[in-house]
Amino acid sequence: MKSILCNFRNFFLNQYLTGEKNHHSYDKIFFFFILFFISGCCTTLRIPVPLPIQADVILGDYIKNSILNDPMTYPLLDRSTNQGIYDYISDLTDTIFKSGLINNKDKFNWEVRIIKKDSQINAFATPGGYLFIYTGLLKFIKSEDEFIGVLGHEMAHSDLRHITKRLIKILGIEILSKIIRGEASPSDIEQVAKTLIVLKFSRCYEKESDNYSVRYLCNRSYNAAGAASLFERMLDFPAPPEFLSSHPSNSNRIRDINRVKSELGCAGVETYATRYQAKIALLP
Ligand SMILES: [Zn+2]
Description:
Number of strands: 3
Shape: globular
Bound molecules: zinc ion
Oligomer: single chain
Helix content: 40-55%
Largest sheet: 3 strands, mixed
Strand order of the largest sheet: 1-3-2
Order of helices and strands: HHHHEEEHHHHHHHHH
Number of helices: 13
């Protein structure tokens, strides 16, 4: 029954977002009624984003530059004096690309930056493939399967355009279109920046990214449920890190990740803990 309702909503939403001639014939109240229910309807993840893929690259560049221009909040670990750790992470992203499941491998920039803050156990992605990882997370993680699981999760958010979809849902398409055309006013930019700071993914997006973090590694020697191992160690945190704090509960996410691994028959078991620890010892 739920999937029938979801298909019904998707049909009308799809018509609204992609229809050109009939675009205005749909009642706006009905449109927002559909959007109100969107978070309970994971199949809506398949609805096309009504902005070209280049929009993600432009938005990502804008966000990345804002971060680079704010070294007080985001003190980046210098690449030239920490090439070893950056190369290691780059090799792991290449492993994920080899899955063949990253849709925008050649369209996005896919750059990793490390933020030097041991107190933050976190990571985040922007549209267009920019990934930011805090040293606090790198030092908390114990093995390579955990780390590549988190890396895959963040790459999925970017590749599947989750951030762009959330921004469209919260702010509407017009303000994003203005940024992409280079016509945004300072107040438009401030509004987007404020939204990004408090942006949270719905449980559907988190579940989809968790799911892909397993898929990317399923045919490798890794334990493909590495992200679940990390989440398990975080269950007792009094205040869970940002990227763990969304619904469903962490215990449900752990169960779902392990279920996907089992259903896909992913046979890898390696954690590569020793190799990970040796690389992380390079961090200042
Ligand atoms: Zn996430």
